[in-house]
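task queued by scheduler; priority normal; single chain, no ligands, no partner chains; default sampling; output format set to structure tokens
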Amino acid sequence: MTKHILPVFIPHVGCPHQCVFCDQKAITGQKAPTGREVERILKEGLRLGKNPQIAFYGGSFTAIPAALQEEYLEAAFPYVQQGQAQGVRVSTRPDCITEEGLALLKKYGVRTIELGAQSMDDEVLRLSGRGHRAEDTLRAARLVQEKGFELILQLMVGLPGDSREKSLRSARAVAALGPQGVRLYPVCVLRGTPLFAMMERGEYTPLTLEEGVEWSADALEVFQEKEIPVIRLGLNPSRELEEQALAGVYHPALGQLVQSRILRRRCEEVLRHAPPGPVTLYYRKGQRSTLQGQKNENLRYFKEHYPDRIVNIEELPQ
């Protein structure tokens, strides 16, 4: 999978539903571009010469009119033909995937399709205003793979009606589809969204940061076990997002918090079975801060929960 992405944000374009959590304009800080603006974005971005994959993010790409899809793709495809870009990536909804639509994408060098599954629980999807069911994700994922595209699936935890058990089942169901990557987003409540109104009315209780870390760690362990890369964990930090994030799970170093929690769990397995006295926990090169936890959170946790053990940490010998 390509390491370099040149993003083109098309917030809300093609979206047939208002999901309760969504405000793409706050997330991207941009309005949807015209085809000519896409050409300008690509021309400027490709000056860096990193041979990226051009990615249309933020809207439901395959739900917008075919003529507008072609306008966007025609702006991108020449760079693919000239070898300046490694194909195109689009983000869309599971219920907006058809064989005809995929044929159009294939024609213009689309290589990767991201599907916003968000949950594999129908009640969670209904309460979140998604407008599709889990079976739509199953059908779309299989069709995307059958037609030779790379598949990325997006999953959220902490949506209305969700639970830790449901989110774990969703992660397992997504992993069973064998995607080439996953994006994992614990819910962040943004100002002006229907979810914010639900929270104010007492109809929705957002996850705390601690809950978001725990639930995300559950899901991440599933994907790690299946060797499925998690290419994004949590919303990309930005000044605009910080101004809009009012509740739920938002932290500029969320990925590190979750990785640190998983490492803590593994260390606990050692500590539970270790005899009283000194215990040395080894970390791989570059993992010291992850093992220690942010502001030494993990070390304090070990001291509090395992007072009869003296915990030392050392780098694993090469």
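post-processing summary
- The chain has two domains: 5-251, 260-315.
- Residues 260-315 form one domain.
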